[in-house]
Amino acid sequence: MELIVVLLLVGILAAFAAPRLNLTTFRQTGFFQQAFSTIRYGQKLAIASGCTVDVTINSTQCLLDWAGGGTCPAAGTDIPNPASGNSNFCDDSTAEGTPGATFSFDNIGRPSAAPTITFGSQTITVEAETGYAHSP
Q1: Burial letters for 28-66: b for 16+ Cβ neighbours within 10 Å, e otherwise?
Q2: Which end of the chain is more exposed for a tag (fewer CB within 10 A), N or C?
Q3: How many domains does the chain divide into?
Q4: Does some domain include residue 90?
């Protein structure tokens, strides 16, 4: 009998709590974290491979591409996410605001630009000489 009462109470609470659950904040935070990880992965991949890696972050996607040259893969070749195999590292989340940046990391991990990417109230800063990506 107690089990039935407990299950009934859980069902009633779920019926009222579930519609109030807002997943937008979780998706926006996920996009920010995935973009952050994409930038760091791009830098590490450029250093490890000795090839230039292009980084593109916008409101719908986080992409890494090879820049080509020498013994590197052809320019524009997508670098897949090692976890999912997708070329969009941020494909299961939603950006807050309209972030945007396009830059590349050279073979020693130095960025071609020092972008500050804004995601609503959160930002990612990439330092000019070191390529260190951080959130102030």
Answers
A1: bbbbbbbbbbbbbbbbebbbeeebbbbbbbbeebbbbbb
A2: N
A3: 1
A4: yes
